[in-house]
Structure formats: structure tokens, C-alpha cells
Amino acid sequence: METVTRIGEMQSHAEELRRKGAMIGVVPTMGYLHDGHLSLVARARKEADVVVTTLFVNPTQFGPGEDFERYPRDPENDERLASRAGTDILFMPATEEMYPAGFKTYVLTEGLSTVLEGAFRPTHFRGVTTVVMKLFHIVKPHLAVFGQKDAQQAAIISQMVKDMNLDIRLIIAPIVRESDGLAMSSRNVYLSPEERKNAVALFRSLRFAEDAVRRGERRVETIRNGMEEILRNAHVSAVDYVAFVRPGTFEVVERIDPPDILVALAVRFGKTRLIDNIVIPVS
Length: 283
Ligand code: PAF
Prior knowledge:
Blueprint: E1 2-4, H1 7-19, E2 24-29, H2 35-47, E3 50-55, H3 75-85, E4 89-91, H4 95-98, H5 117-120, H6 124-139, E5 143-147, H7 151-163, E6 169-173, H8 193-198, H9 200-214, H10 220-233, E7 238-245, E8 260-269, E9 272-281
Parallel strand pairs: 1-4, 2-3, 2-5, 3-4, 5-6
Antiparallel strand pairs: 7-8, 8-9
Helix pairs in contact: 6-7, 9-10
Pantoate binds near residues 29, 30, 61 and 131.
């Protein structure tokens, strides 16, 4: 595996690879890699000739008072893990090169980026779409792999790709969970041992929703109440939202109707904010 830190060098590499007819797959990450990220790299490995994993803690997607400074970082271990998982090129740009003084241009997907996560983190998705668009221009991928764990991010990036006519195939890979069901996330390290035990309630509440729909329950409020009870019993400090939406559009559903719904939630344990979701088929 080769590590590239300069934007120009990555672009020349990508151009050369394209000239040779190689199919480039990119896996954008903020590092502190876990098995969830590595499953995305493995997926890219299957689909592309050359896998580029990017590692960049993107300041523009963190709001004031969020965890940018303390976001976990371990680039040396990331290099090892990325290489073992099948990365060919690890792209680790410097913040000063990605956002030099005088940077003024942002990419914004309207509507979708103001609901759910966007309502609680108003500038978050503008930072995500901006950095992902930059990474696409730098890595010049034919395909890009993102995780379903960040379902709203995946929907927004799909919309951006469509709206901007980007010739990039998106693959949204399934959520990878710990053995007790907690979705893997770099932020799980913030949890105290007690909070970590209680955090299994996120998945439990999603499973509760899935079971309820399977049993024929069609009332959103009834399911939401049951889910919130599970979360409250796990001593979450706040439930930011438990939302029932259409996958893809994030249009809120009033009643559980076919063909499927996405149940997404965000909760806090102290200062730690966790998200999770499930897509439930409805017949
Ligand atoms: O999902 C993430 O880790 C980030 O939002 C991404 C896509 C790498 C952009 O910084």
C-alpha cells in the first residue's frame, strides 16, 4: 500500500490509473478505522481494480462545540488496518491543503440536509457534501462505497451524485454491528463501560420496531412510544429523534405503508451522540 498526502500527487496517480483503464474505487473515511470501515474497503476491493481509502477528519462537518478536537485519531494503526483490508492507496491530505486560507466554496444538497441529523447539526451535511465532492475530484473514482450506518448521509450523497451528473457508481454497504448489536462507530470509544452496556438499547429499540411491523402494527406513534420506552429504560440522557421516513427521500411517513420504511434514531449518552437505523420491508 502506498500513502499519498498531497492533492496534486493523488490527482496525477488517478489520471495515470484511468489512462491505463483501471477501475478506481474510493472509500472515504475520517479514520480511527473499525470493522465497519474495513467492510467498506473489502466491498470496494471486490468491485474495483484499485482501492483508494481516504482518511481525513473533515473540520467543516463539525459544528461549534462538537467533537472535532477530540475526535479519535490513530493514523499509524489506520495505515496497518487499511493495508490489511486491501487498500492500494491511502490518501491522507493535510487540512491546510484541503481548506487553504481563502476557501469559499461549499456544496449543499437542499431539503434533505435540514431534517433529522440536519436539524440537530445545521452545518454538518454542507461539510460532508463539500468534502466528498472535493475527494471525488481528487481521487477521480469510478465507484464509491459508503455505509448504511449514516443513512441520511448516503441519501444526500446519492442526491448530489444525481443532481451534479457525477459519473460515479455509489455502493451503500450494510451496517456492521458488535456481537450485542451496537452499530460500529468511531465514537463508541467515548462511552463509559456503563453507557456502552446501555447502548445496546439502540439496536433493541430498532428490533422492537421491526417485530411490531412484522406483527402487523401500522401506527407510527404506537411503535415510537415503545421504542422510546426502551431507550429511556437504558438511561439515555436525550432522545434527539426517532423518525419514520421513506428510505432515499427521507419523507416522513404518517402510517407504516408498503414497500418499506426507514426507522432512524439519534440519542445521547452524556455528551456522546449515537445514531442508528433499520430498513423494514412492509407488505
Ligand atoms: O462518514 C464519514 O466518515 C464522513 O462523513 C465522510 C463521508 C468520510 C466525509 O468526511
